[in-house]
């Protein structure tokens, strides 16, 4: 590809980035923005976890750029990085493209409606499924990318559930949640997030039954149940907020605690004030 006209290679790089966003392999794009030789500006590398396409014109520089791109890809970052290369310092713009995360809401009841709105606001592609046509309606979920009527006995037929999926089980009945979680636990790759609504007693009963039915306890340990962060939520909107907050915490690696408690700014201010008084 390095011998192709630059505009053709740029178009192909853009296609690869778009494919990553649409659910393909996560991809990092490296572009030279400043170099000792101006002719190198605009050269590009497309890097995945296992391969690369294109060249910046020098094999040693390519190696450094690929290593940098994979660091950025792992962290999901973007920005300008400086690397040492032929003739001096090169400035590379590195951006990662990963699949747009998918939020799958199983059950189209009162919690699902505000959760769908929140999910769309947070940048998820939202799918809502239910076995009742009167509830699984685009009129009820205008923010959803997809609303589908399913049989909970085979709820995920034709629905792509993978490592970029966040799945919330909020059906109207314990038996439906049980059927769906069995199917999800049987997938080769678990979703990034799998949460199930229910009281502690109900969740414990479901987990005990799942283990008796052959579920792997280690896989079951990945299920977030009872679902959501503890904000003393009561209304459907508050419960949806608690669930959305937990999903963001899982996605971003947050702890879910109060920042004010973690940082205790007032303790530092008070301590500094006391120290001044002592002097």
Describe the protein.
Helices cover 39% and strands 20% of the residues. The protein has nine helices and ten strands. Helix 3 (112-121) packs parallel to helix 7. With 279 residues, it is of the alpha/beta class.
Q: What does this entry show, briefly?
A:
The protein has 279 residues and is α/β, with parallel strands linked by helices. The chain is 39% helix and 20% strand.
Q: Would you tell me the structural class of the helices and strands?
A: alpha/beta
Ends apart, CA distance between termini: 70 Å
How many beta strands in the DSSP annotation?
A: 10
Shape: globular
Q: Strand-residue fraction?
A: 15-25%
**What strand line-up does the widest sheet have?**
3-2-1-5-4
Largest sheet: 5 strands, antiparallel
Nearest-integer average pLDDT:
86
| Unreliable residue stretches | 1-8
Supply Rg: 24 Å
Count of alpha/pi helices:
9
Elements, N to C (H/E) = HEEEHEEEHEEEHEHHHHH
What is the percent of helical residues?
Answer: 25-40%
């Amino acid at each position: 590809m390095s011998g192709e006209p630059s505009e053709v290679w740029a178009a192909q790089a853009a296609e690869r980035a778009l494919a990553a966003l649409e659910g393909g392999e996560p991809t990092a794009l490296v572009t030279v923005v400043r170099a000792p030789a101006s002719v190198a500006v605009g050269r590009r590398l497309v890097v995945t976890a296992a391969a690369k396409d294109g060249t910046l014109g020098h094999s040693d520089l390519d190696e450094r750029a690929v290593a940098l791109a994979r660091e950025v890809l792992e962290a999901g970052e973007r920005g300008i990085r400086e690397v040492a290369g032929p003739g001096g310092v090169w400035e590379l713009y590195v951006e990662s493209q990963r699949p747009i995360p998918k939020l799958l809401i199983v059950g189209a009841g009162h919690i699902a409606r505000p959760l769908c709105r929140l999910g769309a606001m947070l940048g998820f592609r939202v799918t809502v499924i239910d076995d009742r046509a009167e509830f699984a309606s685009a009129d009820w979920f205008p923010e959803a990318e997809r609303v589908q009527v399913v049989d909970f006995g085979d709820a995920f037929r034709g629905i792509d559930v993978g490592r970029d999926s966040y799945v919330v089980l909020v059906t109207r009945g314990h038996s439906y949640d049980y059927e769906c979680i069995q199917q999800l636990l049987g997938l080769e790759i678990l979703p990034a997030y799998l949460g199930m609504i229910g009281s502690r007693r109900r969740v414990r009963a479901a987990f005990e039954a799942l283990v008796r039915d052959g579920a792997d306890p280690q896989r079951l340990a990945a299920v977030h149940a009872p679902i959501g962060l503890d904000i003393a939520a009561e209304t459907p909107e508050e419960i949806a907020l608690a669930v959305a907050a937990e999903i963001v915490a899982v996605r971003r690696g947050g702890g879910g605690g109060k920042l004010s408690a973690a940082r205790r700014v007032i303790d530092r201010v008070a301590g500094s004030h006391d120290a001044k008084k002592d002097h």
